Amino acid sequence: MNVTVRWEGVYPALLTPFTADDQVDLPLFEKNLYAQLEAGVHGFIIGGSLGEASTLLNHEKMAMLPSALAVCAGKVPVLINIAEQATRQAIACAQEAEANGADGLMLLPPMRYPADARETVTFFKSVAKGTSLPIMIYNNPYDYKIMTTVAMFEELAELPNIQAVKESTRDLTNVTRMRNAFGDRFKLMGGVDTLALEALLLGCDGWVGGLVDAFPNETVAIYELAKAGQIAEALDIYRWFMPLLELDIHPKLVQYIKLAAQATGIGSEHVRAPRLPLVGAEREQVLSIIETALAKRPALTSVN
Question: 227 partner at 20 to 30 Å CA-CA among 74, 116, 123, 196?
Answer without folding.
Answer: 74
